[in-house]
């Protein structure tokens, strides 16, 4: 490898513009004649709209136009879709209620868009939005999924009687019942997985531009997958045909899943640009972000684990109720099903698993994928249960896990997944050593002498990333394939542009992807430009989520580089009159192995473009593309160990130490991977001890600002001890597994296992706020 | 934010004249750490803002012996880093250093905080415990009479807090238990010990804003040690109850945080 190739801690190329404030985000974009939008949003969680009076608002200064849902429908703009079809266990399709981008008859959550105001300035648009008078007839409200399923609960959609979207199952119920009938011990637990608000640093924004001369639309949007956004806006929302719509997702300041989806605002801004004749920009404020960005998690689960007399797992039963909010967001149906129940085997050899999931409508913000998406929920269920079982049996949680680890690969679980490779014990051992588990009792005693309660908790997670083989997800109901594309464009002087369908919104792709070129040709990363996020520049692609950009996106680049390398070698062999098989490319030179005959990389590239001396029949140029469709999911796994100290007087938890021992397969840039783990851990620890999303009985989100929603701060977190082992993934050419979500997936159960260990009470829900911990302590002291 | 006009007087006279001209729709701005966010959320809509941060008479800290006077326009950062306050009354300087974050401490002012009387603001606990005086452009008001209820003070319309003053006690300290979300005080306790007794000011926890914990004062006046309040019970009914903490939890905090403040006072 070159000094900037695979395994090098190359500093992030993109950080120069980010840390000097020169990033270009959607809100930084400006086009001539641009005006500003504000949305009129429902103040009620559930209400009928009896009328909209815009007369006073229209008369206000600077107002250009006010548009409503009837006009939207009249222009043929389609309802929002859910892109993954899930059937109930009786075979009936999921029951989807209509979600128009602007509500015209009924609103079903606080913040739902009802109308758009376009005005000269943002302030004038907001002033006028407040002056729009809407005659609401309030309807009864339900915000909790379990309550929504009860008889007599308020009903949200006529399409979904009883608010039930689907009643889905996975696994063999009879075999699982049979396994439980033989159990020597059964551990039972009720688990609440708290609802989270994603909170990317950059709020969502959209700029819609309609060009009447070309009948062409351009949409700048804060998207993790602009190509899919174009497809969906074209094929389903009828905004414009694909070739008449350009979607640009420039610098995007974090997404965590919440910017995968195509939201009402970008559709409406595009449509409003045509309607009003001016470019229309909307930028969310933080409160709007709380009220309208898709939330994450929100599960209630009953779990049972059956063990034999030797403490081996016989079976697992899981009953989950998933709150999907008021409407089905783009991938909402897949999160509590195929991204959740398929991971319930964890790292363990479990002969029989049965999971049942009910997805439910409530008067809350739609819920969809958020960093980890289903896998944190599965990991929390299995790892809380494993820890609880070990405590009930009075055995070491580590040894109990070790005893039940899967040890041979490939391993077919009872819940679809076929684990291709892994070494769970290696991570466990690395984690326990880094955490000095053997010295814990001494530290616990020392803490006790200071009046503090120490606890140790672990979590051995596995996730399925690199999503995903298109054929497999297609058979499970996905509306798209989940391959990725790449194009490698070598310029005549030898510098390189990589065009990728992945999208970087903080992950460092511009550096990591360039390192593949450094590795391959020995060129400096500064000679490589990574281009993404513009449907006019880049071929179709599937975007970034599900820790897929490395394993899938970089595999596509790898394939395209193979083609470039092959052609460059052919050209060099021809010029140097050598055998193609003897050509090697290293350190920016193209050489004949074992001789001093060589060409500079730039000479070969220039030769490709002058065409003066190419092999007979060879096309000029040096540009290759590739599509890569994964053969399997990838399976990152690891062992996380958390050590906490609880202050018994206040219930405050201090995280003393957090160890993450991960197996991500091959690591391209260890510094960036560490950063991804750190960020994931911060979010996972945030979920475990801080972040609480609270609706009151009328459906108002009472935690809609940072005054009430507790985000993790630096001082809440310790210095993390992270390490990786590399068990290469056999499913892709680079052996990569993915690292973006692991921290958020593996950490919550480790934290809660540690706190419950410290206080001696297992009855504790996330977030474990000081008051909850204090109460749990009081219950046992 | 709704449209507003901004005015920057350079003297008290100019400020009060502006306020008189603008009438009810004007608001004084002294750092704006509460007012500006409230305006951004469109929950407040003053037609005129009269910025007091550039009024010379409101600036400055004077320490004479053990008497401390802090101008209303003094920032929290200036209080926190003032060497004389740190030497004479370290507990008060330390309190200022715990307010918000560095940006807030360099914008927010003593006068703005005291006049606003947010139920979780830090200074009121100290001024109550220190028996401080609030100076205005019209009069002097003892802290016990100044702080009246949630966001309610003895200030008349248009009256400006020009300074706060107090005599440094023998020992004092502030301990703050933060709300996990806002990081404001969920319970902040300032203890001040003098020859004639101990005073305990509590912020963040009380249903009617900052208050003096008289049971605690009595116990600590007899024995200025953390364990002195062990046997006491704080009435839950007087405490705030919200999504961040029940009144029972806050009642517990008053006691625990008081103990920690006493312990800290011994170490200052």
UniProtKB/TrEMBL annotation, chain A:
SMART domains: Ald_Xan_dh_C (SM01008). GO terms for molecular function: iron ion binding; oxidoreductase activity. Residues 20-140 form the Aldehyde oxidase/xanthine dehydrogenase a/b hammerhead domain. Keywords: Molybdenum, Oxidoreductase. It comes from Jiella pacifica. The keyword Cell wall biogenesis/degradation does not apply. This is Molybdopterin-dependent oxidoreductase. InterPro entries: Ald_Oxase/Xan_DH_a/b, Ald_Oxase/Xan_DH_a/b_sf, Ald_Oxase/xanthine_DH-like, AldOxase/xan_DH_MoCoBD1, AldOxase/xan_DH_MoCoBD2, AldOxase/xan_DH_Mopterin-bd_sf. Gene3D superfamilies: Aldehyde oxidase/xanthine dehydrogenase, a/b hammerhead, Aldehyde oxidase/xanthine dehydrogenase, molybdopterin binding domain. The keyword Cell division does not apply.
From TrEMBL, chain B:
SUPFAM superfamilies: CO dehydrogenase flavoprotein C-terminal domain-like, FAD-binding/transporter-associated domain-like. InterPro entries: CO_DH_flav_C (IPR005107), CO_DH_flav_C_dom_sf (IPR036683), Diverse_Substr_Oxidored (IPR051312), FAD-bd_PCMH (IPR016166), FAD-bd_PCMH-like_sf (IPR036318), FAD-bd_PCMH_sub1 (IPR016167), FAD-bd_PCMH_sub2 (IPR016169), Mopterin_DH_FAD-bd (IPR002346). Residues 1-171 form the FAD-binding PCMH-type domain. The keyword Flavoprotein applies. The keyword Oxidoreductase applies. GO terms for molecular function: FAD binding; oxidoreductase activity. Keywords: FAD, Flavoprotein, Oxidoreductase. SMART domains: CO_deh_flav_C. Gene3D superfamilies: 3.30.465.10, CO dehydrogenase flavoprotein, C-terminal domain, Uridine Diphospho-n-acetylenolpyruvylglucosamine Reductase, domain 2. This is Carbon monoxide dehydrogenase. It comes from Jiella pacifica. The lineage of its organism: Bacteria, Pseudomonadati, Pseudomonadota, Alphaproteobacteria, Hyphomicrobiales.
